[in-house]
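Risk register update: the risk that structure generation would not scale has been downgraded. Supporting records follow, first protein first.
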Amino acid sequence: MATPSSFYHDSAEYLRVRLGGFKPEILLILGSGLGFMAEKLENARYIPYNEIPRFKNSTAPGHKGRLAAGTLAGKRVLAMQGRVHVYEGYTPEEVAFPVRVANLLGADKLLVTCASGGVNTAYSPGDLALLTDIVNLTHTGPLVGFDISDFDVRFFDMSHVFSRRARKVAGEIAREQNIPLREGVYFYMPGPQFETPAEIRAIRALGGDLVGMSTVHECIMAKRCGMEVLGVALVSNMAAGVLDQPLSEGEVLVEAEKAAGRFSELVTAVAEKW
């Protein structure tokens, strides 16, 4: 059963009061190992998810599970220091719930980040990549049975999930700062197990460059809310079968730490110029 529309408004009103009327411009979702960006906000205030009505708690490694509100490069930012996933037992709608709440508070832009596996064999661990599109073949999403009473249409365009304007801005920043930046299609797999080599070959044949266990549900909800979306992925490891070695969650945090400087510079500059 879909979450009643009033639940979103209740959560937004709680945060509006708790944050003293703070009106974010950008929602920043920070993936595995990338939560440190929330601590770079100026005049930041932090609220654990378990204190916010109907927010779900993060259980994945590297996800602190709290909301940060502050400024970054002069922009008002609401940052999710960690996200929740379907593999934690949550529904796609519960995963995407904070996106609509942030939109109700005023955020009209979503900068979503994630750690991902490199399917494209031209990629290397540590690469940063702009997302150009998504593939979701799980046949589930955050809007199934969705309460549309606050919206005017149920069916909406997904031709350009990720803003071409924002991608252009990010590309120009990367060139100016000499930050290597890939581009690729993100393929969603629900996890928590890593993919098999056969699945990765199939994903590659279907046009996937990156694979991960998050991101798509938040992007779908953001597009439904009319938000402009930019996605940045960190290639934390090469996907199964690309290299003859086992995969582990530890690789994700190691590569995130190595890429911290480049990631921080890119995200900060994008926030300023977007």
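Supporting record for the second protein:
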Amino acid sequence: MGKDIITLAIESSCDETSVAIMKNGREVLANEILSQIDIHKLYGGVVPEIASRHHLESINHVVEEALKKGNVTFEDIDFISATKGPGLVGALLIGVATAKAYALAMNKDLVGVHHIHGHICANYIEHKDLEPPFLALVISGGHTNLISVKSYTEYEVLGGTRDDAIGEAYDKVARVLGLGYPGGPKIDAIAKEGNPEAVHFKRVFLEKGSLDFSFSGIKTGVLNYINGERQKGNEIVVADIAASFQEAVLEVLVTKVINSAVELGEKKLVLAGGVAANSRLKELLEEKCKKNKIELYYPSLKLCTDNAAMIGCAAYYKYLEGKKDALDLDATAILEI
């Protein structure tokens, strides 16, 4: 056995300021997350300028907390990593600039990480036996992607959303239903009390053979239904609408993903991203995966949401392949997977 590799990782792509200390990529020594949800709730969504300001105020404190929790010093750190994109560019810049400053000051290597690669890698932390290749479904507020993971650093996008990401659709429907932000957990919770067959919303599967997704039609269908019922003076049963919307969205998602896995001969399916925490989605996928003899993997709740441990894990595998970045590393709001 060689020397342990210790990573300091930073994640600041949206509204979580997170710093992790990782050992050999998969072992979490510390994973500090400072959430801004309570701040952005007031506005019904993330306000980029406010998010950036809070990252700036918090980042060095969170680094100190992570080092303390991980019981390490900067001398113990082998390299520093940060999310380079995609995300809110102002928020990303805080994380990237901090990583660069520490790398320069401490004479450490620097590794920039794609946020989505990080979400997929969260599963390596959770499931020590998991290795590529496999099929990954990445679902969050900004992404809905079906990805063929060929190796620890090689990814091929098979399909994506043509309009709203699934998390966006959840947020918009939750707002109209008066459930607040973030929409995903709110709808998931109240849907348990509703009838998923109360309202039929159109399922959009797109053209035959397509691995892309489209959720704006379902979202619009919900908005039109609510407006129509209000105009008629009918009572809006929020739990029923939430359950019916969720069932429509997840039926499309699960059907397409399982069909893809079967057609491609994939025996491992990995869930990643914030929406991977959805209880009904996991229930449906577990049922379908069991039927089709597909192994299903997903992270625990803390590793589903944005966190630096997943970034440190992704960075580790890049570092092993000698993929380091220079100090001109920049943050990028839109970045291909």
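Strands lie at 6-11, 16-23, 27-35, 79-85, 109-114, 134-139, 144-149, 155-160, 268-272, 295-297. On this basis the risk owner (M.S.) recommends closing the item.
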